[in-house]
Write a structure and sequence with these properties.
The chain is an alpha/beta fold. It folds into three domains: 7-136, no CATH class; 141-250, Rossmann fold (3-Layer(aba) Sandwich); 265-435 and 468-495 and 533-592, 3-Layer(aba) Sandwich (Rossmann fold), CATH 3.40.50.720. It contains 23 helices and 21 strands. The chain has an eight-stranded mixed β-sheet with strand order 10-9-8-11-12-13-18-21, with helices on both faces. A seven-stranded mixed β-sheet has the order 3-4-2-1-5-6-7, with helices on one face. α1 runs antiparallel to α3 (46-63), α1 (7-33) packs across α6 (109-138) and α3 crosses α4 (76-99). The longest helix is centred in the N-terminal third of the chain and has 30 residues, at 109-138. The chain starts with 6 loop residues before the first helix and ends in a 12-residue tail after the last helix.
Length: 604
């Protein structure tokens, strides 16, 4: 037990070691001064010199916190402190000597200068010895790693790798800046990114640590290159508040994320700040993130509406309870919903509640029609009745030439929002594609299939989808709403579509299970398209933000639309009734398999 290291034992160990080494270095300084033949007269006064010098030295070490430094992590900054402590100690001794020189003499003054350097070298060597030993032992046991990018994280990663805090030993660094070629960071050489293939081919690097994440496309290419050289262990590095690093596996979101370049934070803030905001579907993937965003942008009060108890509990537990009110209310219950409008008088309403899963809506047509249409009509009608300034209807890319019930109901919701007599209420719909990580999306599904050993099921080898991160999508929704004047359908630029089979292959590679997990094609599900579109006609499509487009409006006399919707509710054949309102709603197999886009079609 007495050998177990403690804080006090470490201080006592270094205190004793410093005294012994200091006596040794001072004696060596005397020996060097007198060519190893020290006169007896000078040795008689040795202890008069050694005693105050060592007291000053140990006292300055305490003052400069040298005894509180970790032996294992002693580094350059710590050595600098050690040098300053030496300077202070020897300066105090010099002051004492010149004050009481008769008591010290005879004393070889040059020996004190020699001792300064010997003491600094020997005491510094003692303190760095453990780190050097651990590094020499540990480098053979850890994976040789490539560090990608030079950033404030890079030196800390190298230190952690050398000290053994992480299971990787840094061998080289690659950086995009050609000016850094040939330089060193913490004694690790920097290579230009152009030399990466040559470096990987001629070295035995086993892992990669990404210190400076590039744009998603560049990151995707980097991962592909690393994989081609057999490197599967790839980590993203982030620094925690205590300056320690956190290593995370590359996520598919990192490769697919498309971060918009024209987010206007101030416009969003001025739109939301000090407003009362009501969000329906507040517990869903989109609704919950919108709740977080509106509070971040300074909403005065947030009314969170959802009929799913657990979902509502989750989001209410994550946000500021002093500015938010969770309400277990169904959007189909008009009376209870109206009570909320009457009580809280929201200025902004964001309607994110809907049944969105295509296969489930295909199997539950009546429920999908009732929820998605009665819900949006209730929210819009009550918003108009209670003078809400702005209503945002969350729509979907599946509303464009819909091939499924969900898309058709979303399209009718857009038509209602565009054509209703809104008075002073500005109503806007925002249409976008899939968001990464949302409930029921393909990414968590593939993840679960890979973790269970496969197979990964893809409906069709040619199926494509658009993807965006949830936070960025929700910020763009608020930004679009901020510039809306009423009646628009805004479309978020989702970047380039991604083939789902390629997505599955990337995820399998990220898990390092190419040989274990196979991909099985199961056929398109009812109502599923090969590709989704965001914009049919590019007329009137530009806004002042390149990430936000606006679609051409569609006239549909509101009284006729209400009658047609009422007939839809009463119809025994909901699909035919949907098609009467949305003629482009197609159900033929050839249409589902994806016929060529019509001229003028412009998916973003």
């Amino acid at each position: 037990m007495w050998l177990r290291p403690t804080f006090t034992k470490r201080i006592l160990f270094f205190l004793a070691a410093d005294i012994v080494i200091s006596l040794f270095t001072l004696y060596m300084a005397y020996a060097l001064r007198f060519n190893f033949s020290i006169p007896v007269l000078f040795l008689d006064h040795f202890w008069r010199v050694a005693t105050p010098l060592i007291l000053f030295k140990t006292g300055c070490f305490f003052f400069f916190k040298i005894y509180f430094k970790s032996w294992r992590y002693f580094g350059l900054q710590d050595f600098r402190q050690l040098a300053l402590a030496h300077v202070a100690a020897y300066a105090l001794f010099a002051l004492l000597f010149f004050t009481f020189s008769s008591w010290f003499n005879p004393m070889p003054r040059s020996a004190i200068i020699i001792d300064f350097f010997l003491s600094l070298i020997f005491l510094g060597a003692l303190r760095i010895s453990k780190r050097l030993f651990l590094e020499s032992q540990g480098s053979q046991k850890r994976k040789k790693a490539l560090i990608v990018g030079v950033s404030p994280r890079t030196p800390q990663i190298i230190k952690s790798g050398i000290s053994g805090d992480i299971a990787y030993f840094p061998e080289a660094i690659v950086a995009n800046d050609e000016k850094l070629e040939g330089t060193y960071v913490e004694n690790v050489r920097v290579y230009s990114s152009e030399k990466l293939p040559q470096l990987l081919e001629n070295s035995d690097i086993e892992a990669a640590l990404i210190a400076e994440p590039p744009e998603p496309r560049e990151l995707d290419r980097l991962v592909e290159m690393l994989n081609s050289f057999g490197i599967r262990d790839i980590k993203m590095v982030s620094l925690l508040s205590n300056r320690n690093e956190k290593l995370q596996d590359i996520a598919i979101e990192d490769l697919l994320a498309r971060k918009p370049k024209d987010l206007d934070i101030e416009t969003i803030r001025s739109f939301v700040e000090e407003k009362t905001v009501l969000v329906t579907g507040a517990g869903g993937s989109i609704g919950s993130e919108i709740c977080r965003q509106v509070l971040n942008f300074g909403a005065k009060e947030l009314i969170m509406v959802d009929n799913a108890e657990y979902n509502l509990y989750q989001i209410s537990d994550q946000v500021d309870s002093t500015r938010s009110v969770p309400k277990l209310v169904s959007i189909l219950d008009r009376k209870k919903l109206e009570k909320l409008f009457e009580t809280y008088r929201p200025q902004i309403v964001i309607h994110a509640a809907a049944y969105k899963h295509v296969p489930l809506c295909e199997l539950n047509v009546t429920e999908a029609v009732e929820n998605n249409l009665s819900g949006v009509m209730n929210v819009i009608d009550l918003s108009i009745a209670y003078g809400v300034r702005k209503v945002v209807n969350i729509s979907s890319d599946k509303a464009v030439r819909p091939t499924n019930v969900m898309g058709a109901t979303k399209r009718i919701g857009e038509l209602y929002a565009q054509n209703v007599d809104s008075g002073k209420t500005e109503i806007v719909s925002v249409r976008f594609g899939n968001v990464l990580g949302s409930s029921g999306s393909v990414v968590p599904k593939f993840k679960a299939q890979i973790e269970s050993g496969g197979p990964v099921t893809v409906t069709h080898p040619d199926i494509t989808r658009y993807f965006m991160l949830i936070p960025e999508a929700c910020q763009l929704v608020l930004q679009a709403a901020a510039i809306a004047r009423g009646g628009e359908i805004f479309i978020l630029d989702m970047g380039e579509p991604v083939k789902i089979v390629d997505l599955a292959k990337k995820m399998i590679r990220l898990y390092g299970k190419e040989k274990e997990v196979e991909i099985v094609f199961t056929g398109l599900r009812p109502g599923e398209k090969l590709f989704e579109e965001l914009l049919i006609d590019d007329a009137e499509c530009k806004t002042r933000y390149e990430s936000i487009y606006v679609a051409k409006s569609t006239d549909y006399p509101i009284e006729k639309l209400k009658r047609d919707i009422e007939k839809l509710f009463e119809s025994g054949n909901k699909r035919d009734a949907l098609r009467r309102i949305v003629p482009e709603y197609l159900r033929r197999e050839s249409d589902r398999l994806g016929k060529p886009r019509e001229e003028g079609a412009k998916p973003l």
